[in-house]
Structure formats: structure tokens, C-alpha cells
């Protein structure tokens, strides 16, 4: 196995010493704390609560945020961490994303100073867990059609409704819940609320069984006459701009993470191909196997370049939301193809949890769906290219 097998274009030369040091620390963390256990966690549909605290100690939670115990790392550093975590498992990277890019970002961007002081230090340490309630049983790609409603009463608010596919909800200490109010019309009426999980009327039920993301938690939330004080509302979030800005943080991390899963699947397949012998030679000697490995390398290297350029734009403050869609759409789609192809190199052994590609492929089906489906990101890009939004079923007005 040559150096070109791992970094064909010497992409490491595009990163700073500090960026590479952080990447290597996260890689070592994954090697020590995730890889030895991930097959068991996946098979048993188990999320390790202790790993959350360890990630907090490692500075991985809300690492792209500043203050309140957060590490204040760059976008590229956060991306590298996401890539290494997802090389371990999408479920563990998803935890970091839900905690940091969604729940913590919402509080950091839109919360009051009291909100930030109350929740962010504990969340950064992994001592408190947050979740982000936007998707509903009948409202996924079109969050403006949500039916969860917040009614203003004399002493605060009353929330009623349901949310679905909410990561971490069953173990969360606080939920960021997005709901329509009577203040404004349509999407403009949407506000964000901080709901402590022990509030009467708040309940969360895990969605089981699942075929992917088994080392992670997704749940359905029910809100039955949940009474909140007046200051539970996020003061600086009105309309869909609030939740969408958080989703873009998560989408950004996904484009990096998907390449971690793809890289891990490729490296598993490569090692196997060099060791497994058929017809008297390693299967890596066969032309068809080499073609598969080459195709994987091509897309992994290109995907990392896409993620890196997006990260540099983000750090420079010039990244446009529409540009994030390119990376999310391309990198997840290619990562699934890579993982499936890597499984074919492994033959029948590839359907066991002794190897990672099929586990990654199953996980990535969820990653492909959440934070915007392929179709949604295609239409975001289409609108950016043509200037014509095409999200409705009918012709453009």
C-alpha cells in the first residue's frame, strides 16, 4: 500500500499545521474510543451517553462557536473533526451536529444572554444534551407547513403539536422547538422556544427499529399543553431564517462527514483486496477491483476539495447558503455509491459488522435524507442557477 493510496493529491498540503494537528487528535479519539465499540453499539442500537461527556472534554461540542465554554475553532477545523468522527460512524458525527450545529447554534445565534449562560457551558461540556425540533410527521421538506402552534397567554406561552425524527430527544435536557404563533402570517409567524425536557406535557419516544443510524437516537416529540414562561422564546429568531441558518451549519458539517464515511469504507475495501487471495493472487491484482478502488479515490479526493473550498469561503465570511447545497448533495450521494461499491469488494464478508462499508451505506441513507433531501438541494441549486424557484408543483408564476 503506497502513500498515494491514502492521499493521492497530497491534499494534506492544503491544510495548516494547526488544522492537521486537530484532525489527528480527533482521529486518535475515534480510533481509541469509537472503533473498538461501534459494531456492538450499532448492532444493539445503543448510544453511549458517556461518549458525549468525552466529546465535551475533547472540545468537539459547539466547537465552531465562541465563548460560553466553546472552543472557537474555524469552519475548516470543524469540518475536519466531522470527517474523522463520521469515519467512525455517522451516528456519532450526528450527535455532534445535533448538539453543536443545531441546538447550540440556535441558542448562540438567537438566544438571550440568560439562555446562553444557562445552557451553553453545560452543553459544550457534554453534561447537558440539546435537541432541535423542526421536522414534523407531516412537514419535512416544507417546514413552513408545520402545525405545531405556540399560543400566547398572560404569563407566557402554551405549545401544542408534534415533532418527528428529532435527534437526541429522549436523552435531551432542553429542546429547541420551532412553532407557529399568531404573530405574523405563514412562515413569518414561526418562533423558536427553549423547552426544558422535564416540562409537563413534553414527551419523547424513540423511533425503533431502524435500519441505519443505529448508534444514534431519533425520536418523536409530543407537546401537550406545554406551558412556558414568556422568556422561553428565542428573542432574535423570527420566521424560517432562524432554523434555516442552523440547518446550514449542520449541512456544512455533513459534506465533510460523508467523506469520512467514504474514506473509511474505501480503506477497508483496499486492505481486504490486498489480503484476500483468489485464483492464486490478491484480488487487488484484478483489473475490475482496481477500477473500483480508483473510482473511489477519484470521488473522495474531489469531495474533500469541495468541502475544503466551502470551508475556506465560510471562514472568509463569503459563503452563500446556496453553495452549501453543492457539497451536501454531491458528497453524500458519492459517499453512498463508494460505500456500496466497497461492499462488493468484500464479497459476502461485507454484509457482516466485521467490516464498515455496509454500515456506513445504511447510515448515509439517513444522512442523505436529513438536513435537506437530494431533491431539495437540487432545487436550491436550480433556483440559484436559473433565478427561478421550482419548489411548488405548478409552473413558476
UniProtKB/TrEMBL annotation:
<keyword id="KW-0285">Flavoprotein</keyword>
<dbReference type="InterPro" id="IPR046373">
    <property type="entry name" value="Acyl-CoA_Oxase/DH_mid-dom_sf"/>
</dbReference>
<keyword id="KW-0274">FAD</keyword>
<dbReference type="InterPro" id="IPR006089">
    <property type="entry name" value="Acyl-CoA_DH_CS"/>
</dbReference>
<keyword id="KW-0809">Transit peptide</keyword>
<keyword id="KW-0560">Oxidoreductase</keyword>
<dbReference type="GO" id="GO:0004361">
    <property type="term" value="F:glutaryl-CoA dehydrogenase activity"/>
</dbReference>
<dbReference type="Pfam" id="PF00441">
    <property type="entry name" value="Acyl-CoA_dh_1"/>
</dbReference>
<dbReference type="InterPro" id="IPR009100">
    <property type="entry name" value="AcylCoA_DH/oxidase_NM_dom_sf"/>
</dbReference>
<feature type="domain" description="Acyl-CoA oxidase/dehydrogenase middle">
    <location>
        <begin position="131"/>
        <end position="226"/>
    </location>
</feature>
<dbReference type="InterPro" id="IPR036250">
    <property type="entry name" value="AcylCo_DH-like_C"/>
</dbReference>
<feature type="domain" description="Acyl-CoA dehydrogenase/oxidase N-terminal">
    <location>
        <begin position="16"/>
        <end position="127"/>
    </location>
</feature>
<dbReference type="InterPro" id="IPR013786">
    <property type="entry name" value="AcylCoA_DH/ox_N"/>
</dbReference>
<dbReference type="Pfam" id="PF02771">
    <property type="entry name" value="Acyl-CoA_dh_N"/>
</dbReference>
<dbReference type="InterPro" id="IPR037069">
    <property type="entry name" value="AcylCoA_DH/ox_N_sf"/>
</dbReference>
<protein>
    <recommendedName>
        <fullName>glutaryl-CoA dehydrogenase (ETF)</fullName>
        <ecNumber>1.3.8.6</ecNumber>
    </recommendedName>
</protein>
<dbReference type="Pfam" id="PF02770">
    <property type="entry name" value="Acyl-CoA_dh_M"/>
</dbReference>
<dbReference type="GO" id="GO:0050660">
    <property type="term" value="F:flavin adenine dinucleotide binding"/>
</dbReference>
<feature type="domain" description="Acyl-CoA dehydrogenase/oxidase C-terminal">
    <location>
        <begin position="238"/>
        <end position="385"/>
    </location>
</feature>
<comment type="pathway">
    <text>Amino-acid metabolism; lysine degradation.</text>
</comment>
<dbReference type="GO" id="GO:0000062">
    <property type="term" value="F:fatty-acyl-CoA binding"/>
</dbReference>
<comment type="pathway">
    <text>Amino-acid metabolism; tryptophan metabolism.</text>
</comment>
<dbReference type="GO" id="GO:0046949">
    <property type="term" value="P:fatty-acyl-CoA biosynthetic process"/>
</dbReference>
<dbReference type="InterPro" id="IPR009075">
    <property type="entry name" value="AcylCo_DH/oxidase_C"/>
</dbReference>
<dbReference type="InterPro" id="IPR006091">
    <property type="entry name" value="Acyl-CoA_Oxase/DH_mid-dom"/>
</dbReference>
<dbReference type="GO" id="GO:0033539">
    <property type="term" value="P:fatty acid beta-oxidation using acyl-CoA dehydrogenase"/>
</dbReference>
<comment type="similarity">
    <text>Belongs to the acyl-CoA dehydrogenase family.</text>
</comment>
<dbReference type="InterPro" id="IPR052033">
    <property type="entry name" value="Glutaryl-CoA_DH_mitochondrial"/>
</dbReference>
Amino acid at each position: 500500500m503506497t502513500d498515494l493510496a491514502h492521499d493521492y493529491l497530497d491534499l494534506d498540503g492544503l491544510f495548516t499545521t494547526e488544522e492537521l494537528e486537530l484532525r489527528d487528535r480527533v482521529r486518535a479519539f475515534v480510533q481509541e474510543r469509537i472503533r473498538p465499540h461501534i459494531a456492538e453499539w450499532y448492532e444493539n442500537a445503543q448510544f453511549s451517553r458517556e461518549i458525549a461527556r468525552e466529546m465535551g472534554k475533547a472540545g468537539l461540542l459547539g466547537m465552531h462557536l465562541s465563548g460560553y465554554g466553546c472552543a472557537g475553532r474555524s469552519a475548516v477545523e470543524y469540518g475536519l473533526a466531522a470527517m474523522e468522527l463520521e469515519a467512525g460512524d455517522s451516528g456519532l458525527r450526528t450527535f455532534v451536529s445535533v448538539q453543536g450545529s443545531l441546538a447550540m447554534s440556535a441558542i448562540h445565534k438567537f438566544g438571550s444572554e440568560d439562555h446562553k449562560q444557562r445552557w451553553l457551558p453545560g452543553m459544550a461540556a457534554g453534561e447537558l444534551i440539546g435537541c432541535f425540533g423542526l421536522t414534523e410527521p407531516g412537514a419535512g421538506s416544507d417546514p413552513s407547513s408545520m402545525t405545531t402552534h405556540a399560543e400566547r397567554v398572560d404569563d407566557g406561552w402554551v405549545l401544542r403539536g408534534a415533532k418527528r425524527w428529532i435527534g437526541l430527544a429522549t436523552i435531551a435536557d432542553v429542546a429547541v422547538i420551532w412553532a407557529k404563533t399568531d404573530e405574523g402570517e405563514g412562515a413569518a409567524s414561526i418562533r423558536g422556544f427553549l423547552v426544558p425536557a422535564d416540562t409537563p406535557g413534553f414527551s419523547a419516544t424513540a423511533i425503533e427499529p431502524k435500519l441505519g443510524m443505529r448508534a444514534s437516537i431519533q425520536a418523536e416529540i409530543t407537546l401537550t399543553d406545554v406551558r412556558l414562561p414568556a422568556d422561553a422564546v428565542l428573542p432574535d429568531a423570527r420566521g424560517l431564517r432562524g432554523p434555516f441558518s442552523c440547518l446550514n451549519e449542520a449541512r456544512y458539517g455533513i459534506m465533510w462527514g460523508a467523506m469520512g464515511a467514504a474514506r473509511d469504507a474505501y480503506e477497508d475495501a483496499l486492505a481486504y483486496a490486498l489480503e484476500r487471495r483468489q485464483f492464486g493472487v490478491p484480488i487487488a491484482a484484478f483489473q475490475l477491483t482496481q477500477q473500483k478502488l480508483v473510482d473511489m479515490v477519484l470521488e473522495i479526493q474531489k469531495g474533500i476539495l469541495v468541502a475544503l473550498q466551502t470551508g475556506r469561503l465560510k471562514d472568509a465570511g463569503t459563503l452563500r447558503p446556496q453553495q452549501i447545497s453543492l457539497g451536501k448533495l454531491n458528497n453524500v450521494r458519492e459517499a453512498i455509491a463508494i460505500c456500496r461499491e466497497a461492499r462488493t469488494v468484500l464479497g459476502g464478508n461485507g454484509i457482516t459488522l466485521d467490516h464498515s462499508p455496509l454500515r456506513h451505506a445504511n447510515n448515509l441513507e439517513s444522512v442523505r435524507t436529513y438536513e435537506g433531501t437530494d431533491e431539495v438541494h437540487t432545487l436550491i441549486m436550480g433556483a440559484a442557477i436559473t433565478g427561478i424557484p421550482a419548489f411548488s408543483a405548478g409552473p413558476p408564476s
